[in-house]
Amino acid sequence: FSAIRVVLRGKAHAEWKVVVSGDRRTVRDDQYFIDDRAVIWGKAEKPEGNIPILPRGQHQFPFKFQLPESSLPCSFESKPGYIRYYIKVTVDIPYASPPQGMKYFTIIGPHIDCMDEQYLKPMVGQDKRTTCCLCCKRGPVVLRTQLERSAYVCGESVRLKANIENQGEEEVRLIVRLMQYIEYFIDRGVLGVTKEVQHVVLEYKGDSIKPNSISKWDSSNLLVVPVTPPSLLGVCRLLQIYYVLKVNLEFEKSGDDLHMHFPITVATVPFRIPNSQQQPVVHYSVANDNVEGGMYIGPEFLLGQVYDGTYPGGAPENREPVVLYRPVYVCVVRNQQRTPSGSSQEQMAAAAHQH
Fold first, then answer.
1. From 60-74, 78-92, 167-181, 183-197, the region with the lowest mean pLDDT
2. Where are the domains of the chain?
3. Which pick of 128, 155, 157, 301 has the fewest CB atoms within 10 Å?
């Protein structure tokens, strides 16, 4: 061997096909967040004269890289684009193809704390409709809502209250949806293109509310945020992820609705009750398969499968594919708290989360 080289790389990639003047073309773009290199054995330059000799046997070479202080985007996998972090080791062998090894790992980021003041301010909304029939004015239908806070970690319950006043002539129903929006960008001059994707992260449908009645609703534990990638705005130029809570009051017959939208931030540091010794317990899990970031597995991460990456349903029946890597995201273990003097394993997980 002449050298053993290690590369630490963080990279975003976007790619899809477009039709330009009748021709189908592939557009792609890359963005690098980390590109550090080190030689952990041998010499960086090709040695002159005698080539270093590594004796036969097993060898271990410690190495470390310092992650940048700047905010790094989370690891993310989807068909139009991904954000990946990996270590690549190359063994330089004179006059031979160099063996390589790669290890992917997950970055938990960016740092978004539910306790930041901007997320703790309640948001309120109101929508109202009055119907008329043959010049006979009906009573109003009014929807009033209050969102207790606007940032949540996966596993936490969205805190929403709604007051519904139905003085109209038809039944109404409260429907709440948390929507995920992903925008991909490729800047290539005249071929600069964008792609937008949206998914329903969670949905709640209430009971019918009859005319001439008033209903009060509290989300309680009905709107638990499933595992989904965190909000990603202004950190990666190739893609951004944001979430919107849509609150609708649908009229059963006419199909009309009252509606309001609240921006929701999916955070990476959970809410803590002020002045409490109890701290939320966090763990890490792959995203649900109904959201972008959880429904796709890159073919390079599937062992021994000829596979287009669509998940699920693409794998042969009765045989689970061997998945080499999937990114994970911060989750709160519901109904479990720990004190600051929790187990060392929990403290290690918290430390990994902070970094």
1. 183-197
2. 3-105, 117-266, 279-354
3. 128
CA-to-CA dists, residue 22 to 18, 58, 216, 312, angstroms = 10, 57, 56, 33
pLDDT at 354 over 50: no
Average pLDDT (92-106) is 87
For residue 346, the model assigns a pLDDT of: 37
**Residue 320 neighbours by CB under 8 Å, 6+ apart:** none
**pTM: predicted TM-score of the whole model, two decimal places:** 0.85
Return the biggest CA–CA distance within the chain. Answer: 101
* Architecture category of domain 117-266 in CATH: Sandwich (2.60)
If you count DSSP H runs as helices and E runs as strands, how many of each does the chain have, helices first?
Answer: 2, 18
Q: Is 277 exposed, middle or buried (0-12, 13-18, 19+ CB in 10 A)?
A: exposed
**DSSP string over 60-113:** ------PPPSSPPPPPEE-SSEEEEEEEEEEEE-TTSPPPEEEEEE----S--B
pLDDT (0 to 100) of residue 57: 85
CATH architecture classification, 3-105: Sandwich (2.60)
pLDDT at 188: 72
